[in-house]
């Protein structure tokens, strides 16, 4: 793994909860290594400091995401600019819950 890869992974792990954005599985301890950084636009050189191009995915969901992308590209159903984002929102309402604790 290149140094820049480790850098953006470390940044993403500090910014986001350790939960897969697709399957909502939680990670900690030794299993944290199974949580990867996915580039939403599939451009590994596009690493904005605010993490807006990243999402944490488990290795299984990450592999699935890339496979779907490759298959769609092969069929030419979806252009590289029309990336389909997740429909799941595992943290919807989290801010309200945290606010209630205050």
Taking the alpha carbons of the first and last residues, their distance comes to 41 Å
SS class: alpha+beta
Helix-strand pattern, N to C? HEEHH
Give the strand order, joined by hyphens, for the main sheet: 1-2
Question: Considering DSSP H and I runs of 4 or more, what fraction of the residues is helical?
Answer: 25-40%
Average pLDDT value? 82
Secondary structure: elements and pairs:
Elements: H1 3-15, E1 35-39, E2 54-58, H2 59-75, H3 94-101
Antiparallel strand pairs: 1-2
InterPro entries: HNH (IPR002711), HNH_nuc (IPR003615)
Protein name: Putative HNH nuclease YajD
Keywords: Hydrolase, Nuclease
Which properties best describe this structure?
2 strands, 102 residues, alpha+beta, HNH_nuc, 3 helices, nucleic acid binding, globular
């Amino acid at each position: 793994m290149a140094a820049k890869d480790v850098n953006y992974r470390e940044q993403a792990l500090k910014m986001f909860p350790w939960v897969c954005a697709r399957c909502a599985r939680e990670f900690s301890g030794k299993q944290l290594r199974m949580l990867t950084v996915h580039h939403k636009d599939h451009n590994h050189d596009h690493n904005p400091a605010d993490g807006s191009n990243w999402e944490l995915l488990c290795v299984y969901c990450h592999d699935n995401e890339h496979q779907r992308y490759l298959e769609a590209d092969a069929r030419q159903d979806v252009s590289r600019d029309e990336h389909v984002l997740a429909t799941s929102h595992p943290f919807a309402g989290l801010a309200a819950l945290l606010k209630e604790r205050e």
